[in-house]
Amino acid sequence: MKLHSTEQQQLEQLYQSIKNTTHNFLGYPVSKDFDYSELMPFLQFPLNNLGDPFSESTYRVDSRAMEREVVNFFANLFRAHENDIWGYVTNGGSEGNLYGLYVARELYPKGMVYFSEATHYSIQKNVTLLNIDYVIVKSQTNGEIDYEDLKEAVGYQRHRPAIIVANIGTTMTEAKDDTRKIKSILDDMAIEKSYIHADAALAGGFAPFITPRPNFDFEDGIDSISISGHKFIGSPMPSGVVIVKKDNRDRIARRIAYIGSSDATITGSRNGHTPLFLWYAIKKLGVKGFKKRTEHSLAVALYTENKLKKLGIKAWRNDNAITIIFPAPSTEIIDKWQLATENGQSHIICMPNVSIDQINKFITDMESELCELAF
């Protein structure tokens, strides 16, 4: 049966609306320069990666093999220890954060979670869901965690295990917390039981290719990390990857006879198409492709920052960031370019799909607005 003409018209209207709104957004970390048309035939199958991607299941309409390759690819980028790797493809960065905190809570039921005021809203939601005590730490002006305030906060609760959430690219300013410095603080304070989770939703896709390389991965003291797949890589649907130490994961997994696999993830049924999309992107791009995307985004970010400054706008960005922050323009410009805005500040995120031509059109709008204000 086919849809009635009214429903077909509704679909067409939705398509045109999405096509138009996709063209002009600069304020959110979503890459749209992807082509997964080769994978269209797979949409006719109910791909479900239920259970543990590193073990087989009695349900075999899945993409587990690709999912394992995706996890191992990122584990290698994040310098995880070869024999202590486990992870899975999530629905997005928020689920990855939930999983990292879940593992931490199971390891340290009496732990205290510490995260900065610039942390993504999913963290506070997740600690509430998991019923874990937490302390919000101050942020520096650039959005990076205030290490002295963190040290003081941990000191008040030094009898409890410390669970730290490090931001590897905060929501508004793309500030990166230094996990090596955080680990050093915990060691200097003789905190015997600790856990560091890195929320690298955006910057995890390009942080390994920045020079100098930020301190954010397993070699720099973390215990788990979450990234988004639809951000720097790009995907038609939200996705992500969470990677934890296998030894820690083994403490929480349990065997489920019904599915012939371990229940080690947050959800039961899991999307089997998103691992396929991420696998396809990784194979097409390779490490060289990731480097090229990083170089492009950084170059466009520098160009954007300089163009805004030439207009007399107080624009700035953190070191090696692709996010440019500036005073919020008019609501017309915010709406047209879909700029994320908070506390009187807006930002542009120069994702790999953002071009110089697109930035020039935005700058023209900003210039016109400034001219109108001058009169």
What's the topology here?
Elements: H1 5-23, H2 64-77, E1 86-90, H3 93-107, E2 112-116, H4 121-130, E3 133-137, H5 147-156, E4 162-167, H6 179-188, E5 194-199, E6 224-228, H7 230-234, E7 240-244, H8 246-249, E8 254-256, E9 261-263, H9 273-310, E10 323-327, H10 331-337, E11 340-342, E12 345-349, H11 356-374
Concise description?
By secondary structure, the chain is of the alpha/beta class. The chain has eleven helices and twelve strands.
Description:
The protein is of the alpha/beta class and 375 residues long. The chain has a domain at 39-282: 3-Layer(aba) Sandwich (Aspartate Aminotransferase, domain 2), CATH 3.40.640.10. 40% of the residues lie in helices and 15% in strands. It has 11 helices and 12 strands. It has helices spanning 5-23, 64-77, 93-107, 121-130, 147-156, 179-188, 230-234, 246-249, 273-310, 331-337, 356-374, and strands at 86-90, 112-116, 133-137, 162-167, 194-199, 224-228, 240-244, 254-256, 261-263, 323-327, 340-342, 345-349. It has a 7-stranded mixed beta sheet with strand order 1-7-6-5-4-2-3, sandwiched between helices. It has a 3-stranded antiparallel beta sheet with strand order 10-12-11, covered by helices on one side. The chain has a two-stranded antiparallel ribbon with strand order 8-9. α2 runs parallel beside α9 (273-310), α3 (93-107) packs across α4 and α9 packs across α11. Mean pLDDT is 93; it is low at 255-261.
